[in-house]
Amino acid sequence: MDKQITAVLVGAGNRADVYARTSFAHPEKLKIVGIVDPDPVRRKLMGDRYNVPETNRFACVEDFVQRDRFADCVINGTMDHLHIATSVPVLDKGYHLLLEKPFAVNEAEVETLTEAARRNDRKVVIGHVLRYTSFYKAIKQHLLNGDLGRIISIEMCEHVNYFHMATSYVRGKWRSEKLCFAPMLLAKSCHDVDIMMWLMNDTTPALLSSFGGDFQYGPDRKPPQAGTRCMVDCPLEQECSYAARNAYLSCNRWPAYVWRCLDGAPDQSMERKEHSLKTDNPYGRCVWDFERDGNVDHQTVMVQFRSGATGTFSMIGGSARSERNIHIIGTKGELKGTFEDSSYTLRLRTPEKSSGYTDRFIDLKISGDKTGEKGGHGDGDRNLVLDFIDYLNGHAPTVSCTTLEDSRISHLVVFKAMEAMYTGSVVTLDLQ
Fold it and tell me: What average pLDDT is seen over the chain?
């Protein structure tokens, strides 16, 4: 009989909360027994939500690791640049670790965490939740079955819709490497780079090139008539795609981020939220007034694998609809589909037919939130946590399990892609 896994949340933010909710659906499998966060409001909110004793609520990791180990693992949902500083001490204390992606913001951090996990012989799983979705697992199974033959080319793209782009990567804390220490390719799309490496894991990446830039945002692209706050002094509010009133009041998009400033406030009324957007809430500012210090809104990465296959991935911010598309071409056939539609077409070579191929349309019929706007990532978030629990209970890692060693490869690809874009060169990746 598998035992109930106990976990401490380090970082009481949205992602840790999404993972911790598994304890409500499967209390026999997971129990949250500790909270670590410097924000007293978040610490209380999450501590109360998961019924954590006051004695197990800590303001910092340093205080937490002074205690004897009282849980099986840590779920680390801190900001990207804090992952190493908050993960190495808990590994040294003997905790296993579920760590949100990206797990590092530079190559040196990759090696630091890798060494800490090896030194302490701890299990570390990275939160690449797309591997755990039914959509990508089904595609992986076709490759394992040999349905497509040897892969010639894999083409992937992620379209980030305009309001997600504005909320997270222009107005939000991921707009600037000065704030989050991670370029958009790392912060948003290391998921997708990981998927490509996972699907191509019978070979390794060898050469990379990349191109990108910021096409849409920044003060130099601001319409001349625009004001400083959407709901205060902007005559373009009624026609602007990024108007705060539409995005955050009428449609209530990304509430976990937009209303973070009201955490713990007794007044959560629409009037209070409107006042917030008109005054001190950054999500009420003109979308063109934010410094993005060179961050991109679109980027394409090209990979040459040692097998001779090629891969391309494009991240494009500003689309009307968010979606992830994939097209794999192999020596026996091809597969193309869209994650948000939870469906794909398997097209196999059929030389005896006049068309030369046979199509098989596969609809996985997944309902619910597939966009990730509510942290759902299809069915990936909960599947990841359940898989992590099984892993800690001694079960063999599944095909989806994203160990630190796996994630190390995709992170290095991102860092080399950024180098290639900045230098305008082709970069060699020599994996050791």
Answer: 93
CB 159 within 8 A of CB 153: no
**Helix, strand, coil distribution of the chain in percent, nearest 5:** 40, 20, 40
Domain 5-122 has CATH 3.40.50.720: yes
Reading the block at residue 18, the tokens are: 């999404």
Distance CA 37, CA 21 (A): 18
Give the range among 153-162, 209-218, 313-322, 366-375 with minimum mean pLDDT: 366-375
What's the pTM value of the predicted model, to 2 decimals?
A: 0.91
Q: How many CA atoms lie within 13 A of 149 on its CB side?
A: 12
Is 194:410 a contact under the CB 8 Å cutoff? yes
182 touches 102 (CB < 8 A): yes
Looking at this protein, which amino acid is placed at residue 380?
G
Indicate the DSSP class of residue 250: I
Beta-bridged to residue 418, according to DSSP, are none
Is 130-218+294-379+400-428 in CATH node 3.30.360.10?
yes
394 close to 375: Cβ distance less than 8 angstroms? no
Domain extents in the chain: 5-122, 130-218+294-379+400-428, 219-289
